[in-house]
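New to this. Explain the following:
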Amino acid sequence: MAMLVVFLYHCSMFFNSFDWHIKNKSINHTYIEVFSLLVGNWIMPIFFVVSGIATYYALNRRNPKSFLKERLLRLGLPLLLGIFLLSPPQVYIERITNHQFIGSLLEFFPHYFDGLYLEIGGNGNFAFFGHHLWYLLMLLIFSVITLPFFLKTKRMAAGKEFNILHYLFIPIPLSIAALTVNNFVNLASWGMIFYLLLYIFGFYFFARESLRGFVRKIGFLAGALSILTTASYISWVFFYGFPIKISIGWALFMMIRVLLVWNMIFFILYLYLGDKYLNVSNRTLKYSSEASMPFYVLHQPIIILLGFFIYKLEWTVPVKLIFLISAAFLIIMGFYELIIRRVNILRALFGLKANQSGGGPIVPNTTGTYDRNEISKK
């Protein structure tokens, strides 16, 4: 579900007024821009918190060597695919639509290695972070640098009960990161240190079993605070714009954003861990869970490519929006279902485990789980 939000967010970037690789001829300053603002602050922080939780459970099942090997394969291979195959067309489209290059993709490709791509509209072309795959690069780096500390202090993650003091005081280092070092390696609204802290908090605090009970108590309040801070943030942007210079107003704006992210994390966990709506398991969820990594790797290049073919057309924004979402989704899922999930070398390149059955895709049984005996028979 979070991956689908990212997909819709990048579709919205084609139409809103914020900097992106390619923009529609007509910009929408209303419902599309509101949606972009609505989800842009918290969607990537959610990924890093969940990644921290996943790291805790992964280290309970694997030794350090096995953990690093899996991370290098399942994050590193898709990242390399993105850097050397999926990013060049994206940079090319950005350059020709902004009149920074004239010629074909084949003519551009040698120039892809001219300088480092550091920002939209810049001069460097080599997207060493894989464009939208920067999350994989950050997660790979975080996994390596935090592993020694996680191994020595893993018991702390299952420590004392998560309580109101954690809820109130953990945002303090997040606020310090946002107010002091957030502009250092700024990625998708936040800085590298901000994401690192969320990853660490995911490991030490959000993996605790006691979190479920606390989330049930605090979830409604977190939801109310999420709505309040989101409304404040969007209103600020629409009436005053984004603060640029460091000032008291800028600091207040950043604090609102931090509180928005922090409370949204708890509200989403409330919906899941609180057994409200999302604590389910079925065949559709298992299928889409595996598809999420290939979907993530492919979604932005497909959106940009489709955007390139329609950005000058005289269609209305709603028609283009429906076309972009529908066509991109069908193309991505078509690639995944018909090709990627059926070919082991492609599964590896897109961050999936090899299909060991030798007889086509493994299908969940009637209980929604994978029967190892049936796999062995195949």
About this structure: The chain has 15 helices and two strands. Strands lie at 186-187, 190-191.
